[in-house]
Amino acid sequence: MEPSSKLPQVGTTIFTTIGQLAQEHNAINLSQGFPNFNPDPKLLELVGESFKKGHNQYAPMQGVLSLREAISEKTEHLYGHFYRPESEITVTAGATQAIFTTIAAFVRQNDEVIVIEPAFDCYEPAITLFGGKSIPVVLEGNDFKMNWSAFKSAISPKTKMVIINNPHNPTGTIWSKSDMVQLQDILRDTNIILLSDEVYEHIVFDGKPHQSVAKYPDLAARAVICSSFGKTFHATGWKMGYCVAPKPLMQEFQKVHQFNVFSVNHAMQVALAQYVKDPKHYVNLGSFYQEKRDVFLKGIKGSRFKMIPSGGTYFQLLEYSDITDEKDTVFAERLIKQHKLASIPVSVFCKADYDQKFLRFCFAKTNDVLDKACQILNSI
Fold first, then answer.
1. Residue 50 has pLDDT above 80, yes or no
2. For domain 14-39+283-378, is the CATH number 3.10.129.10?
3. What is the pTM of this model?
4. Suppose 299 and one of 154, 276, 339, 374 were both cysteines; which one would form an S-S bond, judging by CB atoms 3.0 to 4.6 Å apart?
5. What is the tens place of the pLDDT at every residue in 203-223?
């Protein structure tokens, strides 16, 4: 059979391609965004106990109630917005599933979805699958600032949804209170749904607060907010996340969710419900990763790469225009083959033609790995 593809332009993801190339050439892999260290032994202990206690059958479709209650308490404590555990929270198979399900629930044929670029690669294919059209708004300059006039101009009568990502992958930038207020003002008199990808909400640096959509009532009233236990607790392979939204939006989300995955890992939910109740397990995450960011930046201080310190996430962009004028995809491949170091070229995160000579490096690694990577970067 030769089926007609619904995603004819989509091939293997850059993460798989780069990962295979890194393995083939025995390169240090700072490309895909996951830690090379284990979660807290306490969390692993709780998960093990949960399996042994028999939580091995289907969980409730919305998620285990005790975990939804813990999420509600956490969100209200951090951002001052109360989400009802019984009707406004769903536990998901990672944030990617939450994002996909949100798009599936609301985007129809010919709807437009504004996507801030560079953008994580799962947004646009989901929009395309459900007949929508992604409208890119590109962050400007080497500091990747939002042009709010350009954003406002991108809105049309067909705009169904806006997708934002804060802290932002791949650039490592964070939005200010002023950014959030401007977004709120622009969307106030519209029926546009806001999908807010906040998987790095606890990884913000230099004493700055995370500006969650949940802090802004007019935004929260139209938003589905997606978060990640995997990113927060060094367990990306568990594929555990959640989303919060007002009841009318969550009802539509759950209509799709129940036929998508129905429910997610029961034992892990029970363990996470206990673990999340203690704020110390996430409030210090920013300082933990800031130390790693600083080790990485200090280690390449004498290199030919240019950098603006990441404001959040566990990614750092390096600009290489003083080294070569090669396209970022070409330089990234050469970096693996010749220098044994893997990164992600930023142009792959853009629908528009984009090559500003940036590579993205993940610093969620042990210091010995970061030191080896720094030695390579300094040698170029």
1. yes
2. no
3. 0.96
4. 374
5. 999 999 999 999 999 999 999
